[in-house]
# Entry
Amino acid sequence: MHLGLNGKSVLVTGGSKGIGLACARTFAQEEVDILVNNAGDIPGGTLESVDDAKWRHAWELKVFGYSNLTRALFGRIKTRRSGVIVNVIGMAAEHPSPEYIRGATANAGLAALTKALGKGFIEHGVRVVGVHPPSTRTERILQVMKAAAKAKLGDESRYQELVGAGGMFSQMIEPEQVGDTVAFLASPRAGQLSGVVLNLGT
# Structure
């Protein structure tokens, strides 16, 4: 895309698969120096019964993991008065559901954090922006869809019936679409944006 990112350095968390991997690949095409950190899978997000301790760990990992890493990065990049933090959050912040209450709550908190930090950090030359992807075709979402099909249709192999108009996963995008958006937001072409979260669905 030639976004003017060549020669820059980027840290991609959870970059071994899914959206993180797609982001890393897009940045690689932009000739960016990439450090990939696999934060590990965050449990939760399915309709299956999950014990409270596991849910709590997932919620805390997502919320405090984002906020702690953001603070750590800000402390390093504000001295250069140049840098961008892009948080990939999720549409559940905008459209919470009873099947994903804790995740939706965490996402809403992270969206608020992104907006607040983006407004505060800009005076130091650091932008903070976010992205809300809808359901994205990854290994993780496939597991979620199968669990949803088993719970609603009695057969996990019918998960494709949940995709499309009227289904639980009516919007489905590819990881590369998220990766391209993240790279754009990190680039000088989006230099006027900070404290905003872009919805990739409706």
